[in-house]
Specification:
Number of domains: 2
CATH architecture of the largest domain: 3-Layer(aba) Sandwich
Shape: globular
Bound molecules: D-glutamic acid
Strand order of the largest sheet: 4-3-1-2-9-10
Largest sheet: 6 strands, parallel
Oligomer: single chain
Number of strands: 10
CATH topology of the largest domain: Rossmann fold
Strand content: 15-25%
Distance between the termini: 29 Å
CATH class of the largest domain: Alpha Beta
Length: 301
């Protein structure tokens, strides 16, 4: 039985704090949503793990998270996870899933002739999914793919309030510049950077400042928030079309009913955070609280 007296419940999933860069756009778009943020921090970083291990691990965490949080919709706020397991999540769980994938298509649409640089995890840059996006939307232009695992650790530290080590940052930026220059073809320049890991928008200001040359810096946050809003509160006709396409007609109607109530709900959003490590440090707990996320505890306890 559908309880229309509660707001829609959305589960936002990432390996660590990266999904906060997506969550902020979702909450900006839908301020009174009930959110469960789930981070598999015991296993972060995902980008350095083997695909087979990750697939098994993520199914386990996702099953537990869905059981605990009972969401109406799941946002896989992780490019590494989405480009690997979105299809298998959709097959395993009868819920709508919104994935986060690198903004390669908009990068080529919004630029004219220069190269596009994809900054992502080691896992994401070598995915078939990425190559497929490039061959469909790249218009024969360059895609320079760079794995930046250090940025994941730096973003994790930044959210914990730790300052970035200046010499490590300088070295990283110089390496990045060298690698990009080595791959640019004669006369080509960089027109856009795609932040293809949800941790990286947390360092956008630092990256833009370090790169200096004017170019576009793109991520998928706004598009994902729009997609979530669209699935939660579409017109009845669009909803039935979409839920048919997704094979979730019943679930879609349930979401719409909750969402309609949400429109008139003026209360504060409820947002809780689950983790998979036995304990998280005080600085992270404080930072999560500043994102209005209350700690719920360890998912496996
Ligand atoms: N935030 C994740 C992504 O978007 C992964 C970072 C990691 O755990 O390596 O890919």
């Amino acid at each position: 039985m559908v309880d229309v007296n509660s707001a829609a419940r959305v589960l936002v999933f990432d390996s660590g704090v990266g999904g906060l860069s997506i969550l902020s756009h979702i909450l900006q778009r839908l301020p009174s949503l009930n959110v469960s943020y789930v981070m598999d921090d015991a296993c972060c970083p995902y980008g350095e793990k083997a695909d087979a291990y990750l697939q098994e691990r993520m199914q386990l965490v996702m099953a537990r998270a869905i059981e605990r949080c009972q969401p109406d919709l799941v946002v896989v706020a992780c490019n590494t996870a989405s480009t690997l397991s979105l299809q298998s999540f959709r097959q395993a769980f009868s819920l709508p899933f919104v994935g986060v994938v690198p903004a390669i298509k908009p990068a080529y649409e919004k630029t004219t002739s220069g190269a596009v640089v994809l900054l992502a995890t080691a896992a994401t840059v070598q995915r078939d999914y990425v190559m497929d996006l490039w061959s469909r939307f790249g218009r024969g232009r360059s895609l320079i793919r760079l794995a930046c695992p250090e940025l994941v650790a730096m973003a994790e530290n930044k959210v914990r309030g730790q300052s970035i080590d200046t010499s490590q940052w300088q070295e990283l930026v110089e390496t990045l510049r060298d690698k990009v220059n080595a791959e640019l073809k004669g006369g080509e320049s960089v027109e856009a950077f795609v932040l293809g890991c949800t941790h990286f928008p947390l360092l956008r200001d630092e990256l833009m400042q370090a790169w200096r040359d004017p170019c576009l810096w793109l991520d998928s946050g706004v598009a994902v928030a729009e997609r979530v809003a669209d699935l939660l509160a579409p017109s009845e006709q669009a909803q039935s079309r979409k839920s048919d396409a997704l094979g979730h007609r019943h679930k879609g109607q349930k979401i719409a009913a909750r969402a309609i109530h949400r429109e008139s709900n003026t209360g504060e959003a409820s947002a809780t955070c689950w983790h998979t490590s036995a304990q998280i440090d005080v600085s992270l707990a404080e930072r999560l609280a500043s994102h209005r996320l209350q700690l719920a505890g360890c998912l496996f306890e």
